[in-house]
Amino acid sequence: MKPSPLITALQASGHRITRQRRVVLEVLEESQEHLDAESLYQKARQRAPRISLATVYRTVAVLKQMGLIAEYSLGEEHGHFETVPETPHYHFTCIGCGQVVEFDTPQVAVAIQELAEREGLEICTVQFSLTGYCACCRAGRGR
Amino acid sequence: MKPSPLITALQASGHRITRQRRVVLEVLEESQEHLDAESLYQKARQRAPRISLATVYRTVAVLKQMGLIAEYSLGEEHGHFETVPETPHYHFTCIGCGQVVEFDTPQVAVAIQELAEREGLEICTVQFSLTGYCACCRAGRGR
DNA sequence: TTGTAAATGAGAATCACTTGCAATTATAGC
DNA sequence: GCTATAATTGCAAGTGATTCTCATTTACAA
């Protein structure tokens, strides 16, 4: 009986609240990681065993389109999802250990803003992510 | 008999200079567009009719790994390639007309640099691209 | 010229995701 | 609470981009 903001928003927009959507949303809200479709599927199955991967994809598509979650490409070939944070941030993924570091660079937001104004652009999506080696892995690599 | 810098670099690193590699390189060097694998393949076929798509992929993989070309995801589901420019730049792709606008934002480079130093990171790849509507398409859309 | 390891072509395979369709189910109205 | 019905689901087949397998070809050092 927890009135999750995501559930409420989904409902308000005229979507039906099904068991599988509720579960996917719960997993997304509880997880602090950046889950990809497959791990989202695995976690969701624990609560709704008959859920299908297609439903996971369909659910994140709806949530993404509503702006409730964001999709990132973290250097891998598939996408990762996260509930939208209050403050926008970007991601660094360590090639060595897989760790994801979130960072906020106001300068980037400013740069985008200036570019949009200068060129008369309307920006819809921003994709900004870095990969490399974190401090730990650099130390371990001997350089 | 033109000693293309890319050919020279390829050779210097111990790779064999085959007809198909030469052709792919030529197409990449001559084109000012951001070609995807398929159009690279189509253009290459005009000079080496029996070249296969697999070879195109293998060739760009080698070039990319050597840092001679860069791959970008321009809002589409597949990659686009470009010979590495002297000055780094990023891309804006118009959802309306498909036009790609290159832009340079020193602020972004600075932000990345500062982040790397602050967190002790070694940055290997930077993915930064925008999508939205260009001035023309915005006008045409009536907003 | 020749030996041999690298590279290629053709097509099968993979990976991430999407779609078609029949069966289920949430929910508005009675 | 029932019922009708349109949204949603599960499954399996389909896609699109890219990679891999393997037999054949080829670059190039000797």
Please give a handful of descriptors for the protein shown:
homodimer; 143 residues; alpha+beta; Arc Repressor Mutant, subunit A; Dna Ligase, domain 1; 3-stranded antiparallel β-sheet; 3-stranded mixed β-sheet; 6 helices; 6 strands; 44% helix; 23% strand; flat; DNA-binding
Tell me the CATH topology of the largest domain in chain A.
Arc Repressor Mutant, subunit A
- Distance N to C terminus of chain A: 52 Å
* Helix percentage range of chain A: 40-55%
Largest interface: A-B, 32 and 32 residues
Strand pairing plus helix content of chain A: what structural class? alpha+beta
Describe the largest sheet of chain A.
3 strands, antiparallel
* Spatial ordering of strands, largest sheet of chain A: 1-3-2
In the CATH classification, which architecture of the largest domain in chain A applies? Answer: Orthogonal Bundle
Please state the overall shape of chain A, judged from the principal axes of the Cα atoms.
flat
How many helical elements of chain A?
6
What do we call the CATH homologous superfamily of the largest domain in chain A? Winged helix-like DNA-binding domain superfamily/Winged helix DNA-binding domain
Rg of chain A over CA atoms, rounded to whole Å, is 18 Å
Count structural domains of chain A.
2
**Looking at the chains present, what oligomeric state does this protein adopt?**
homodimer
Strands of chain A, count: 6
The low-confidence runs of chain A, each spanning 5 or more residues with pLDDT under 50, are none
Rounded mean pLDDT of chain A is: 91
* Element-level helix/strand string of chain A: HHEHHEEEEHEH
